[in-house]
Structures are given as structure tokens and as C-alpha cells.
Amino acid sequence: MTAPTASDTTADRCKEDLVRIVYDGEFARIHRDLRAVLADPVFDPRENLTKREAGLLSYERTFRMQRALGPAVDLVADPMRLFAVTEWSSLLDTTTTALLNSHYNLCLGAILQHGAGRTDLADYIEELSTMSSVGMLMVTELGYGNNVANLATTAVYDPATEEFDLNTPHAGAQKFMPYTGIRDIPKIAIVMARLRVGHEDHGIFPFIVPLSDHNGLLPGVHAAPCPENPGLALDNGMTWFDHVRLPHRNLLSGKMGHLAPDGTFHSAVRGRRKRLTEALDRVNPGRVSLAGSIVAAGRASAYLTVTYSLNRRTAAPGHGREMPIMGYRTHQVAVLGALAKVYAMTCLVNHTKRRFAETHAADVTSLVNITKALAGWEMSEVINTCRERLGAQGVFSVNRIADYVGMAQGVVTAEGDALPRIATTALELLHQTPRVPLPEPPATGEGDLTDPTLQLDLMRYRETHLRETFRTNMRGLAAYEGENPFASLWNDNITTAVAMARGRGVRVAMEQFCSATTDAREERVGEALRLLCSLYGLLEINREAGWYLAEGALTPAQVRRIPALIDETAAALVPFSAMLVGGFNLSGELLRAPIAADDYLTAVDRYIWSRVSPEEQAKVAAIRQRDSVFTLTPRAPKDAETTDDTVPDKSETPVLDLA
């Protein structure tokens, strides 16, 4: 056996350092065994499935994850572990993310939280813990998207029978998008419904509602499948409740109040809106899970695209010359810019996960909302960029990224349009931060724009300026007239609110990225991360260059210089690119993506020909043997840095025998 060289040892140390940073020092405790589960053949690519077959396969994969996770109650109590579950499962089946998140976070988690100490719920907890039934949350209604306070589904209490009558009063009150399209899988839902006792409306509360068993939907539950959702195998449906009877115990009133058997209601939480906020508390970890999952898909997209870009050769200037496509500056800026955003959002999500696990303070809810929105927007852009830069290879599901496109759309639109929520979050931030004078810009015309410290100063200036401008504008109610002057005031300032909230997310991401850079233990890792952090900062400042120029924070000369600085920084990152994606601890073998192979030509060739009949394979093999075409070999050695560890060899993929 050949002894490892010094360069091998250095590469191993660099990878270990990056894995530590990317997975927040928790890879061994939280992530390693989840990564190993993905080696199960159930996660191998399947093609030409019907919608029902694809949906059933996703449920099968969800059950496989459940068997590997240990006691469900312990899992729900460990949010960091729970977040990791959806991050890894999403890489090979984007649908499992939604199923696992809904089951553990939103259904079982809600019962454990709002039913804490109640022994009468043990049967439901056991059923969900073993995944004998799949859990989900039903909030959104066809006529009420983000407007949760006005949900119309009713649960009318009857003291005589000590039961609730759960009913959908009209078409607009149908529960929209829950997973009720496949009817013969046992399922239980947490249904948000309006609690009524006599003529009194106590507001929206969660109820445990069994939906189906192996024979289909239960009496009184009616569901129709939603139209096809490209890229996802979710069995979304629209659900109507026709006077479904529920026992008293199925009300999850928790800290929100107590309903006595005789119908008397008591609550220490004043106001229906506050009770609703408490009832939906489990949505917050669900949002963090979605943010983590889409960033994990962004990491996989960047890994696949960088790996392929270092191997794929194309025409170069000069007669008969070739070079890796990563050699082109346009490709470098697009792909390495995407990689910079992936690292920035990884740092942001890691920070949000830590903060959520530590406290449930109001500012953490704001951070969660901003993180979910910003990560969704940024990774949607990253995934689409990677898909385009892969050319034709990017459109095939086996190469993963095409499926991540659909997942990104699902994350961005989960709970409806993110813009209203992020705007409301901006309003909440005004109450969480003290009023300060409008800031002066950093030293205009001075400093190095590639310096992350200066970039961070500019981001802080922008966030503070937008926040205080927004605060001042929202005090101008006296200038408005009409039936609802506040609505007009809010509407005139909502774009500033969104810009401020996004600016907050970008600033926090940059702070966390800078912190990760200084945390590097290996010199080479620190150098690479500093460049990558600088590229992220340049891209963000360039995005808002017009604003910075208008406010006097940048000079015209600085603004004109930014595109060249982006080009130069991206070019300097190329030698580090394989190492940086190696920090994601992914591989072509794990992802089952032919384009991630060192010899991707042979891997793609073998995979595609494996899809025809054995007879056709034999004919092609005979033709190749006759014409002495045994293998496809790369046309030239790679020109950019890579390692066997970061670009695994998939030449052993079992398909057509070309030799």
C-alpha cells in the first residue's frame, strides 16, 4: 500500500475543516448516520412511474427514514437532529422533506407540545411515533391563504355528547393542499378549526383528526387530488369535512385555554389572535426545516455543477484547443457566485438553527421568517443557475438538479407567497429595535471593496437606513385620509419593508460567513473562505449598487469597478473550487448522478444504454467490439484542482459492459 503523501494529508485536513464548518461541528453526532441511510437501494432512481407510483415510493422512502431515526419522541425533542433529517432525505427524494417535516414537526410535535402531560393521547402518540399513521397539518383553506385568523372550518362543541362537530361550511373553507390525494395510507391530521360553543366563537384551535386507514378515507372525510405538481410527488389534495364527530380529548388546547366537559371555556391567554399564535408555534421549526432542506439541495447543486465544470471540456480560443468549461469567466462568475450564496445561506441557516434551539424569543421568530424567505429565494436562483450551467445534463432527473427546481418552488411558496409574511416581519422588527438617528455612510470612496469588513459595514448601513426610513414613514398616518388610512400608509411603504427585512437577512448571513472564515483552522481553507465571502459581499453590493450610489455610500468610480472585482475574485477561486464543494461531504456515488463521475462520459453512456432491453444492449456491445470502440476516455487531463475524494469515480456503475 502506498503511503499517503503530504498533499494527501493536507487535502484530508482541509476537507475535515470544511465539513466541520459546513455542519457546524455536528457532522459525527447528527449527520453521519443519516447520510448512511441514503445508501439504501430504496433511494435509487426510478423512472417512468405514474403519479400514484411516485407518491407511494416517496412514502416508502419516508418509512425507511423513520426506521433509522430511533424513538420519535426523542427526535422531536432534539430540533438540531430533526432539522438534519429533512436536509439529507431531500437530496434523493425531494418529496420526503415535506412528508417528514409535516409528520414530525407539525403533527407529532404539535401533539407533544399542546398535549404535554396528557395520558389520554398516548394512542395517537404511539401511532405517529411508529408511523403506523402519517401525520400532517391542515391550516390553509381554499379561500383563506395567509389569512389564518379568518379560517372558516368550524368545530362546534356539543356538551350533551361531549363531542365536536367538525364541518366545512362552504367551498372556500376546504382545506387546501394537505396530503390526502393517496387515500389508502393511514393518516392523521392536526386540523386548525374555529372552536364554537353555542353562539360563542373562541377562535382557531388545533384538533386531532384521523383521516384515513388502509381501506380509504374515514366517514365524513372527502378529498380530491390537486392538479399535478411538476418536480414533486406530493399527493396534495383538497379536503372537505362533512360533520365529522370528534371526542372531547381531540381538542389540543394546551396553554391556549381549557374547555370543560360542560362547555365552559377558560383561557389565561387574552385575545384570540394571541391564542392562534401559540397554537401555530410548531410552524417555526417547520420553517427552519424547509430552509435547511433547500440549502442542502443548493449544496448538492453546487457540488454537481462544480464537479462537472472541472471535468467537462469545450472549445477554447485557438485552433483545435480545448479547456474545461470552468475556465470561462462567465461560467466562473455564475457557478462560483452560486457557491458563495450556498455557503452564505449555510452559515445563516446554521445560525438560525442554533438560535431556535436556544430560545423562543420574539426576535428568533423574526429571524426564522427572514431565513426561510431569503434561503428560499437565494437557493431557487442558485438551483436554476446550476441547472442552466449544466446544459442538457441539467434537465435529467437522474442528475438531481431538475428535481430540486420543483422543490425550490415548493419551499418558496410554502404557506403561500413569502412577500406578505416578510413584510409583516419587517413591521415586527421596528418594535424589536430602538429608534436611532439616520446613519452616515461608511467612508465614501475609501477602502477595499473586496474586504469583507467594509462590505459588512455597507450592509449594516443599508439595513439601518432602510429600517429608520421605514419607521419614520410609518409615523405619517396623519397625511392619509379615507376609509382605511392605515392600509394606504402600509401599502405605500411595503416595498421598503421587504427591502429592509431582506437587508437584515443578508447582513446576518454576511456576519456569520465572516465568523466562519475566521474559524478556519487550515490556512488554505481560510484563504478560500475569505475569497468566497468576499465574492458574496461583492454580489450583494452590486445588486444594490444603485441604492448605495444614490445615498452617497459609493462613488461612481467604485460602482464601475465592482464587475471587474467580481470577475477577479471568481477567477481566484477556481483553484479552490473542488476543495470547497468537498466540504459538503457529498459524492457522485451517494447522489447516483452520472455527471459527478471522474469519467462522466462513460458513466452517462452506460446509464443511458442501461435503459434499453438486454437484447439491444448486446447489439450495441457487439458493434463496439467490432469497431474496437471499447470505452469513452476523457480527452485531456483536468486543468483545475480536484481530488479523488471530492470527485468520486463512478466508472463501476453497473450497466452496459463496454469493455
From TrEMBL:
GO BP: fatty acid beta-oxidation using acyl-CoA oxidase; lipid homeostasis
Acyl-CoA oxidase C-terminal domain: residues covered: 455-599
Protein name in the entry: Acyl-CoA oxidase
Transferase keyword on record: no
Source organism of the structure: Amycolatopsis orientalis
InterPro entries: ACOX_C_alpha1 (IPR055060), Acyl-CoA_Oxase/DH_mid-dom_sf (IPR046373), Acyl-CoA_oxidase (IPR012258), Acyl-CoA_oxidase_C (IPR002655), AcylCo_DH-like_C (IPR036250), AcylCoA_DH/oxidase_NM_dom_sf (IPR009100)
Compositionally biased tracts (Basic and acidic residues): 636-652
UniProt key word Chaperone: no
Recorded GO MF terms: acyl-CoA oxidase activity; FAD binding; fatty acid binding
Alphabetic keyword roster: FAD, Flavoprotein, Oxidoreductase
Highest taxon listed in the record's lineage: Bacteria
Domain Acyl-CoA oxidase C-alpha1: 286-418
Cofactor(s) it depends on: FAD
Pfam family, one: ACOX_C_alpha1
